[in-house]
Amino acid sequence: MTIKGLIFDLDGVLTDTAEYHYLSWKQLAEEEGIPFTRQDNEALRSVDRRESLRRLLKGRAVSEAVAQDYMARKNHYFHAYMAQMTPDHREPGVTAFLEDARASGYAMAVASASRNAKPVLEKLDLTEYFTAIGDGYTVANTKPAPDLLLWAAGSMTLHFNEVIVLEDAEAGITAAHNAGMRVVGIGEAEVQQAHLVLSSLVGITITEVIDRLPPVE
User: Fold this and answer.
1) Which residue has the higher pLDDT, 190 or 31?
2) Relative to the CA of 197, which of 67, 126, 165, 208 has its CA 20 to 30 Å away?
3) Which is catalytic among the residues 11, 48, 147, 168?
4) What is the per-residue pLDDT across 82-105, written as a single tens digit (0 to 9) for each?
C-alpha cells in the first residue's frame, strides 16, 4: 500500500531526553540505595514509567504506595531538567525532515511511552506538525505492544500498511513489527531489527526513506 503517514517516537528520534531520564532515575536510585548504571538505563528506553521502575528495582519488592512515591519523585526530577529545554534541543536533521514530510503531504503522529511527551513537544515547539500525539496515558499496553502505534495510525485514519514508524529503541522496533508496520531505526544501538537503519535524520528526505525501504514481503 502507498505510504501516507509517519509515526515518530519522541526520545531519541525528535529529541534526546535520555540523559535527563538517566539522571532522574539515578538520583532516585542513589537516594534509595539501589545500584543503577548507564548500562542499566539502556533497558529503560522506550518503556513506560511503571515498567522502568520494575526494571530498576531488579526484583526488589516494594508496596504500591512506595512505588507511586518513587515514580512521582523521578518525574519531579525529570521536570526540573525538562524546564531547561528549548527548540534548540531538537535532534539534528529533525526540523528539515518534518518540514519536508509536511510539504510532501504526509500525515504525522507521535507515539511515545513517555507521560511527558506533550509538554516536551511544547518545549520543542513541535506540536504543530502532528495530527495526533500518543503518550503514556493513551493506551493500557504500551511498547513493545503494538497498541500505541495502532492508535496513532487510526488517529490519522490510516491503515497499518500506510505508515512508517521511526524508532530508536528495541521496544519500539518490536512494537512496530507487532503492528505489522515498516520501521526505520534511528541511531546505532538496538535498532538492527528495523527494516532500514539510519544514523540520524541529517540530510535525509522522506522520499529517500521510502525509496530505501525494502518492499513488503
Assistant:
1) 31
2) 126
3) 11
4) 999 999 999 999 999 999 999 999
Q: Where are the domains of the chain?
A: 5-16+87-212, 18-82
Point out the catalytic residue in the list 9, 135, 147, 168: 9
CATH no. for 5-16+87-212: 3.40.50.1000
Interval 110-136: pLDDT, tens: 999 888 899 999 999 999 999 999 998
Q: 11 an active-site residue?
A: yes
User: pLDDT value at position 216?
Assistant: 66
Residue 69 is a catalytic residue: no
Q: Which residues pair with 38 in a beta bridge?
A: none
Averaged pLDDT score across all residues of the chain: 93
The CATH class that applies to domain 18-82 reads mainly alpha
Please, which contacts does 84-90 make with residues 24 or more away whose CB atoms are closer than 8 Å?
Answer: 85/15, 85/17, 85/120, 85/123, 85/124, 86/123, 86/124, 87/123, 87/124, 87/125, 87/126, 89/15, 89/16, 89/123, 89/124, 90/14, 90/15, 90/124, 90/126
